[in-house]
């Protein structure tokens, strides 16, 4: 029987909230299930509290609320931080992404975990 982990999109007011909500969906209050996209991807591959047989799904309820919270303004905030600490060879690319986000164009932070949740590991993502 498939184990369902429910993410409440109404609780996502920004990227830090997303990490908290996904951790609590899988492990309860204070739970961890990644704090960046690389660690989320690792967790989705198994061994971090999901069923050993890989039969699980993440149901992102009220995902439209999270989509708004993880939109271009939050993406700008995130990319400003990335720009201050990225490797010099990546600065031009990050600056271009930041300029697009400031103009309200390009991918948002919602698309990053959404894509990771859809593409990694045995679990499926269901947007509700």
Automatic annotation (TrEMBL):
It comes from the Bacteria. SUPFAM superfamilies: Barstar-related (SSF52038). Signal peptide: none annotated. Residues 7-84 form the Barstar (barnase inhibitor) domain. Transmembrane segments: none annotated. Belongs to the barstar family. This is Barstar family protein. It comes from Streptomyces sp. R33.
